[in-house]
Amino acid sequence: MSEVFWASFLAGSATLLGAIPLLFLRRVPHMAQDAFLGFAAGVMIAASFTLLGEGMEIGGSFLIVIAGLLVGAIFVAVLGAILPDNIFARFLKIPQSGKGELKLAWLTFTAVMLHNIPEGLVVGVGYGSGDEALGLLMAVTIGIQNAPEGLVIAAPLKQKGVPVSRILLLVAIAGLIEPVAALFGFWAVDVVAGLLPFALGFAGGAMLYVTSKELIPESHGHGFVQTATFALLFGVITMLSMEAILF
């Protein structure tokens, strides 16, 4: 069991590594901010379709994955509608200056965290099924993919002036949910294996919703549409390249 924990812990910790370079830039120009957001959008799009593809491969019916996708998107939409911005502002320790301003940062964090839960379950199920090589392979693969996802969380938070300590805390929470999910997957492998297609669809739907509703519009909001668009493509290429190398 300790091997499951440490493998998934290191995979989750890679999320934190991806955020660190951005945090220590004193000032990020608008063009660079939009590029970071565009890159984050590309990473999330590619990661979403990876999750959906995995769900359809291991599931008995693609309808289960589609149901998860729709429920995931609706969940994040409702979450964004019912949670007031002043809660985000107080937690992030920044002044609230406009309605909806912090939804991008908060929903992006939520989507990445939801995405990390089924990834942790996959690692746990791999070990729990007795195939330790599969569990280790999934942990290494997910860890490498997690690095750019740290940037996904950090970019909108940095843009809103959130203190570095709070950004690191949120990125760590999003990443370290993986070992918790992995241990659950290891202990309840039979139950979790049946739920994985829906969970993967749920996470994919949540990420696609946030990307379309928040990340892409925000990256196009300062006149650097071309920069943001090519950064998005680079984000997709980055994730596709990782998949091609690792699988």
Characterise the protein shown here:
With 247 residues, the protein is mostly helical. The protein has one domain (2-15, 34-246). It has helices spanning 2-23, 30-58, 62-82, 85-92, 103-128, 132-159, 164-187, 189-219, 225-246. One of its GO terms (cellular component) is plasma membrane. This is ZIP family metal transporter.
List the helices and strands and how they pair.
Blueprint: H1 2-23, H2 30-58, H3 62-82, H4 85-92, H5 103-128, H6 132-159, H7 164-187, H8 189-219, H9 225-246
Helix pairs in contact: 1-5, 1-6, 1-7, 2-6, 2-8, 2-9, 3-8, 5-6, 5-7, 5-8, 6-7, 7-8
Provide key terms for this protein.
single chain, 247 residues, mainly alpha, 9 helices
In total, the number of domains comes to 1
The total of beta strands comes to: 0
Structural class: mainly alpha
* Stretches with pLDDT under 50, minimum 5 residues: none
End-to-end C-alpha gap: 25 Å
Biggest sheet architecture: none
Count of helical stretches: 9
Shape: globular
Percent helix = over 70%
Give, in order, the helices and strands. Answer: HHHHHHHHH
Compute the CA-based radius of gyration. Answer: 17 Å
Percentage of residues in strands: under 5%
The whole-number mean of residue pLDDT values reads: 80
Membrane topology: Multi-pass membrane protein
Transmembrane segments: 6-24, 36-52, 58-83, 167-189, 195-212, 224-246
Keywords: Cell membrane, Membrane, Transmembrane, Transmembrane helix, Zinc
Main location: membrane
